[in-house]
Recover the amino acids of this structure.
């Protein structure tokens, strides 16, 4: 019983230390801008199709599923507002972050894990290059800035999917649909939901990097790193979401 | 405290050489309860190629990882250019590492980068005063030295094992280091390619006047590239001398390496 607990606290401590080291080192040169841009492309652009398709389906299905209940209460005119609010405040950020945890978190975990077991990280270190800067800082930075952009894109596509569902079941123009969505949205809905996505991105990058960088036991370890990066970062997304809701309520944004 | 094994070391005095570049004194290293290095001593002089022979798992790779600062050791000291590796700060260690070339057993090429980018990577960090043309010329010249100029734009996945070793060697020498550490450079290669790599190591020594530690199981490589051969056994330097001297020792433990 004590051994798993010890391992958990050990890993939590090491991950926190890595996050702290990132925050300390990110401000100082060398900035590895080329690698950050490359990672933004890999993490952001390459995830766009997956996020887009998923968001479109979520928006469409969510609207189709919600409509009968609202019709029962004669509140179908509230459908765009309700769906829009749900997508922008909660569903969009969380679903997109979970998709990113799956795709990006596992990708980083596996890539760094394989770099570790094939001694590429050692090779970097022994050539006098700071692998932390080149490998970890660049990936955490790219995740922190790309996940919010993916969430924005995902939200917009989910709303389009939702509009399609509304259009299938009744007649409503695109302008009217978006007018209804934005009429109910306030800054207090948008800003906290957007701010938390930076934390989601940071957590995905940090956990992926930690798991990959500390990979061991050869190729088996690489698989384990990728797997646990997804599991832990998905869990962290819900924990951060819970904290974000509490903080938002504390500051009276709800 | 680790007990020093009761084994008679067979040391043949080396002829006078240049100044000592690497000094390993009473090195001790354990992994859990496994005492890998118990009281290891080795001195490498300027311009000298020292071959370290030993059974698999006896701590040869660990030794050069300690020398390059990749692993921390439990006791003793390692001095490289007079600097104690374990006690210098990160910045000084990075500067020291720029003077050391390391050829990994697995080549350890960065597989997301082309051959050109693999060679450019250390240059961008340590050759900041160089212009792009100078960097390009250096990359071309170094690849030419290892006979792989045609592979400059290839990715590591497109290269054979021997080509990867050459690129690994090119990457290690591109900063014109004063020390070369080779971790089983000929392992997994056919005899012809092994010989070519061994000859390349001699060429590197002659061209750049490097001091080297060569970890190998390949006797042809040891004979061709080594000025001196040492045998690591039971965590100590068990024998030390020229290839012919060590191979002539009648100790069965040593003799088994040369059979």
């Amino acid at each position: 019983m004590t051994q798993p607990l010890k391992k958990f606290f050990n890993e939590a401590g090491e991950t926190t230390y890595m996050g702290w080291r990132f925050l300390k080192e990110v401000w100082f040169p060398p900035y590895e801008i080329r690698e950050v841009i490359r990672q933004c492309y890999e993490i952001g652009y390459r995830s766009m199709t997956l996020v887009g398709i998923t968001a479109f389906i979520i928006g469409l299905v969510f609207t189709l599923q919600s409509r009968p209940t609202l019709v029962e209460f004669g509140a179908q005119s509230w459908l765009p507002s309700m769906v829009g609010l749900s997508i922008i405040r909660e569903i969009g950020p969380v679903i997109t972050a979970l998709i990113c945890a799956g795709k990006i978190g596992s990708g980083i975990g596996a890539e760094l894990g394989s770099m570790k077991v094939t001694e590429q990280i050692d090779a970097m270190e022994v050539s006098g290059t700071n692998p932390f800067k080149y490998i970890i800082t660049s990936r955490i930075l790219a995740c922190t800035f790309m996940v919010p952009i993916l969430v924005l894109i995902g939200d917009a596509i989910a709303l389009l999917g939702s509009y399609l569902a509304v259009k299938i079941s009744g007649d409503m123009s695109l302008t009217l649909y978006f007018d209804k969505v934005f009429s109910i949205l306030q800054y207090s809905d948008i800003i906290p939901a957007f701010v938390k996505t930076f934390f989601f991105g940071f957590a995905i990058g940090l956990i992926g990097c930690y798991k990959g960088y500390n990979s061991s036991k050869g190729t088996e370890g690489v698989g384990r790193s990728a797997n646990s990066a997804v599991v832990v970062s998905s869990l962290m997304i819900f924990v951060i979401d819970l904290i974000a809701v509490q903080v938002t309520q504390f500051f009276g944004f709800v | 405290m680790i007990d020093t094994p009761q084994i008679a070391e067979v040391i043949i005095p080396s002829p006078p050489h240049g100044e000592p570049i690497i000094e390993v004194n009473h090195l001790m290293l354990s992994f859990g309860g496994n005492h890998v290095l118990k009281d290891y001593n080795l001195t490498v002089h300027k311009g000298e190629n020292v071959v370290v022979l030993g059974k698999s798992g006896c701590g040869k790779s660990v030794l050069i990882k300690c020398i390059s600062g990749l692993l921390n050791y439990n006791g003793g000291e390692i001095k490289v250019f007079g600097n104690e590796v374990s006690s210098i700060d990160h910045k000084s260690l990075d500067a020291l590492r720029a003077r050391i070339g390391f050829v990994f057993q697995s080549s350890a090429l960065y597989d997301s980068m082309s051959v050109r980018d693999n060679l450019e990577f250390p240059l961008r960090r340590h050759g900041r005063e160089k212009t792009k043309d100078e960097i390009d010329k250096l990359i071309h010249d170094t690849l030419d030295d290892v006979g792989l100029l045609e592979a400059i734009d290839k990715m590591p996945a497109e290269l054979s094992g021997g080509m990867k070793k050459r690129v690994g060697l090119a990457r290690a020498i591109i900063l014109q280091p004063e020390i070369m550490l080779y971790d089983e450079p000929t392992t997994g290669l056919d005899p012809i390619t092994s010989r070519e790599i061994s000859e390349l190591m001699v060429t590197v020594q002659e061209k750049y006047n490097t001091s080297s530690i060569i970890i190998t199981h390949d006797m042809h490589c040891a004979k061709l590239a080594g000025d001196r051969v040492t045998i690591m056994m039971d965590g100590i330097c068990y024998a030390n001398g020229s290839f012919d001297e060590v191979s002539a020792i009648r100790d069965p433990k040593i003799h088994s390496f040369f059979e």
Notes: Residues 10-258 of chain B form a domain with the Rossmann fold fold (CATH 3.40.50.300). Residues 1-8 of chain B have pLDDT under 50 and may be disordered. The interface with chain A takes residues 65, 68-70, 94-98, 100, 102, 104-106, 108-112, 121-122, 125-126, 171, 175 of chain B (CB under 8 Å).
